[in-house]
């Protein structure tokens, strides 16, 4: 059935509906990666957003148990050029169409995604809706809709839970944790406790952790309460700390830097990233709508450790006085290259060192 | 029996990177810093740390290499020849020295290096950075910066290779 994508600026793109026949509203962005649609669709950082895939054909791999990045996808719509037909005859086999139906998320295919992405590159992210009929009512509804800025609250765990192991005790502060991080921590046999982002310093320290991870998450870091920054400012002086994605932006904010919204968000894995200290280049999955403002960064307090070589943006920072560091990209892969997962090895070496010196 | 690789090229590079950040953290920047590499491989490692400091801070940290063979207490011809031209001797008075070696084992090499350094001058402080700490100390010495702790048996050997001297970067346990 023909359905339509309406953008806030009035532009309409038409295609064929798949997934759920629902009408949804969200912020539309585009993804330029050539693989990993399931991980991207289930990544909690996309809470409240619709994704256009630049990859011409999406869906050919079906949906797999090992590729979930969250239990429930939080995105509001999927727009593709061509939807691959995948047989679901075999028992337990799921395809993208059925997956989206199940989660009440609409999809649109046979869309001119190249034109749409060129348009979004110029305008930046926009409010959008997927509807059956384009009329004044649909446009009015879109204009009147206010998108939430409570994505972290919507996504992150409200309660503490454990992912036990036999190794170091790592506390993950959850802002919208993707499963890839837990998988890597499992590889290190870490004894993981995931805490809500509303946790207090006392609650963290009482659990006697060996290291802290500030997780990835959706939305604008400045929409979070100041208590989060206070928590980070204390924890960063107590033990090794690693920030990822939104956690990286929060570490920067907690240390006096400012965050800017990007004119067009970048979601992909084709930008080379350089580690400044070693001059080494690598690729990693990125998903970012915000970036640290270069001029606001206090060089007496923070090192810039990584840079994106395409747009020059800051991709990693480290405190001068404490073993606390963070990266904007996703070193866990899922989806994407694993070239940067040495970041986790660095973190665990730092933790081992800290534990040895404090035992 | 086959050798077991405990650090490959990538993890060796990352260990040196981490040590560099820790040196800056401890020293509050690069001021008054001198790196002293213990020959043979410690010298190359010291230069690599200096390269990293330059990339990160745009500062050139002096590097000196010393040969402590003649200072070892288990060496028959103990003497005081550092194997240094006078021109290579940096003024270390009141400087913060980081001694760099590949492996920390009994601590006797480190002790010899401390003797040698103190003969040259009186530094403000001396710290020790090692790529590998394999345990089995015979002297009260510990490293301030450790790339990797590798618990070993007394009779095992640790073989560190550096690209500049051995053609490749690796750390292996030799049985």
Write structural notes for this entry.
The complex is a heterodimer of chains A (359) and B (175). Chain A has ten helices and 21 strands. Chain A has 359 residues and is an alpha/beta fold. Chain A folds into two domains: 2-147, 3-Layer(bba) Sandwich (Glucose Oxidase, domain 1); 152-357, Class I glutamine amidotransferase (GATase) domain (Rossmann fold, 3-Layer(aba) Sandwich). A ten-stranded mixed β-sheet of chain A has the order 10-12-11-13-14-21-20-19-16-17, sandwiched between helices. In chain A, strands 1-2-8-6-4-3-9 form a seven-stranded mixed beta barrel. Chain B is α/β, with parallel strands linked by helices and 175 residues long. Chain B has one domain: Rossmann fold. Chain B has helices at 9-27, 41-57, 108-120, 163-166, and strands spanning 4-7, 33-38, 63-66, 96-104, 125-133, 145-149, 157-161, 170-174. Chain B has a five-stranded parallel β-sheet with strand order 3-2-4-5-6, with helices on both faces. In chain B, α3 (108-120) links the parallel β4 (96-104) and β5 (125-133). In chain B, α1 crosses α2 (41-57). The mean pLDDT of chain B is 90.
* CATH architecture verdict of the largest domain in chain A: 3-Layer(aba) Sandwich
The CATH superfamily label of the largest domain in chain A reads Class I glutamine amidotransferase (GATase) domain
**Largest sheet strand order of chain A:** 10-12-11-13-14-21-20-19-16-17
**Alpha carbon gap, first and last residue of chain A:** 65 Å
CATH class of chain B: Alpha Beta
- Name the shape of chain A in a single word: globular
Protein name (chain A): Carbamoyl phosphate synthase small chain
GO molecular function, one term (chain A): carbamoyl-phosphate synthase (glutamine-hydrolyzing) activity
Organism (chain A): Fructobacillus tropaeoli
Pfam families (chain A): CPSase_sm_chain (PF00988), GATase (PF00117)
